[in-house]
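Researcher: Here's the sequence for the chain we discussed earlier.
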Amino acid sequence: MKPITRNELCGIWAALPLPWREDGSLDDEIFTRDVTSCCGAKVNGIYSGGTTGEFYAQDFAMFREVNRILTETSHAHGIRVQAGCTALSTDEVCQRARYAREIGADIVQIAIPFWLELDDAEVVEFFQAVAKAAGDVPLVHYDTARSKRRVSPVLYQRICREVPTLWGTKFGGADVFAVKQITLANPELKVFVGEHALASATPMGATGAYCALVLMNPAWMIEYYEACRDRSWNRAFEIQDEIGLLFSVLRSLPTPGLQDSALDRLFGQVDDFLRCPIACRPPYRSGTAADLEYLRGWVRENLPHLLQRVAA
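Model: Thanks. This is the structure I predict for it:
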C-alpha cells in the first residue's frame, strides 16, 4: 500500500481483542478471521495493542506474530493498520517500532512508559527515540492517565516541533473542551476520542474514534462517524445517547468489575461479529457466558436494531 497521508488519519478505527488458546498461544486462525471481518466492514483502519489488545500480555515474539497477521491480512483488503508498540522501556518500544516499520504498518501507536512518571524532558526524549526507530512511519500517541501523566497542549507543541512524525493523539479523557485546547494549540494534530464522546468532540476538532463498539455492529459506528462528519447532529447525538445507555448497563453485568478487554470481547460476541473467545489474560477478570447472555438480552430489549446476525 502507498504511505498513509494525514488526511487518511480519520474515521472509525477498530480495536481488536486477541483470541488466546488454553496454553496461552495466539489462535492465528481465529485472529485472521476476525481481522478479515473488520476489513469487510469497511472501517477506516484497525489497530493492535492498547488495552483491548492486551499489549501488556505480549512478549516480543507474540507482538511480532500479532502484527504480522494484522498487517498482512488488513493490507490484503486495502485497510490501514496501526501497530500498538507500547511497552515499559524505551528500548522495547523502539524494538517494536522498528519491527512495525519492517512489516509495513501504516502507523506506530505508543503510550508513555508508565511504571515511573516521566517529566517533560523525559517525555520529549522518549518521543524522539521512538520516532528515530520508526523512521518515516507516523506516530499516534495514546494519551491516557494510565501512563501516570497526560500530555498538555503546550507539551504537544514542543513534541511536534521536535518530532514532526507525530501525527495524532488518542485522547483518553472525558473533557471534550480539552480536545479544543489541543487542536487550537496544534492545528495539524489529529485527535481521536472514544465512541462515547465523538458527537460532542467533533465540533471541538476531533477527527474520529478508536472504537470497540464497532465489534458489536460496524454499520452503526460507521453511520455515527458519517453523521458527525456531515454535521447531521440529530442523528449523531441520537447514536451517542444510545452508546451512553449501553455503557450504563455494563455496571449491572453478573460479573462485577470487568475492565476494557473483557468488556470488548463481550461486545464482539453480542451479535456474533467476532469469533474471539471471551476469556482475557490474567490477572484481569474475564467475562462469562452469563455476562454475554445478560448483555445480549438487554440489547435485544432496548436496542434491537443493533442485532442482525443473532436475529437471523
